[in-house]
Amino acid sequence: MSRLGTLFVAGAAVLAALAVGQPARGQATGNANERFVGKVPDSIVATVIAERGLRVAYVVQRGKGQLVYADSQPGPEYDGIRAGSLAFSPDGKHVAYVAQRDTKQLMVVDGQPGPEYDGIGDRSPVFSPDGKHVGYVAQQGKKQLVVLDGQPGPEYDGVREGSPAFSPDGKCVLYMAQNGDKQLVVVNGQPGPEYDRVGEGNLVLSPDGKHVAYTAQKGERQLVVVDAKPGPEHDEVGAGSLVFRRDGRHVAYAAREGSRWRVVLDGQLGPGFDGIMKGGPAFRPDGSLEYLALRSDSLFRVQYRPRK
């Protein structure tokens, strides 16, 4: 994980435009819809507009301090607001940002300050797709942890930058962590088994958000872990080949043993080939599994129809 960011907005800049002005000569005209946002109380240094709705938030410089206005309502004042951290949730109902207070950093959600830490991850905050949850990586001394909705999780030696990740419905949250020289995947607060490396090239959620699969390195061998259960070991697991069926009931990937490549479906090895073509395996809308494979100078189209 990269060094936790401490860069904050410094100095003041003038807001370019909060509403459409009169067109300059030669400028194209159209139906402009202007909406009054509010009086500018001080110097604005950053702005953000919600993707849904007409909400606007902006960072204001006030003396040596900074604060965020959301829909013209001021929030608490801090020593600084991190540049680029001000963000709305996907549904536009919540606004969050990273603030600095003395030597500590904290996440502020809807004007409410969270716990203070030595640092907060550069890519924070991370909202769930439904906007109901927000998470971020925090630094506490030499340890790192994921904070979800203001509640701290277990501490690790490191947490992958950009964590956590959410399922589309926001009910599943996961991230990769480091314990000494081992790595693991944490799903809904539960740590999975430790390996030499995890998730490189393959870390996927099933479309229904109920299952998690990823590649793990164990010595010189690789394997796929599904819902914390390890599968068979291989010389190599094809990067980007791990895929769930739409209903989440089946999982497949490409793997190599020696010079032979096979597709593994639900832990069962298929026939051997010289290579599996890029883009395979893939589940079709009817639930069948399909891929193209090479054997000698011949191309084969392989199809499976897994049991329900």
Task: Please give a structural write-up.
The chain has strands spanning 43-49, 56-62, 65-70, 73-78, 80-81, 87-88, 95-101, 104-109, 112-117, 119-120, 126-127, 134-140, 143-148, 151-152, 158-159, 165-166, 173-179, 182-187, 190-191, 197-205, 212-218, 221-226, 229-234, 236-237, 243-244, 251-257, 260-265, 268-269, 275-276, 282-283, 289-295, 298-304. With 308 residues, it is mostly beta strands. It has a domain at 200-308: 6 Propeller (Neuraminidase). Strand 12 and strand 13 form a beta hairpin. The model is unreliable at 5-24 (pLDDT under 50).
Overview features:
308 residues, mainly beta, Neuraminidase, 5-stranded antiparallel sheet
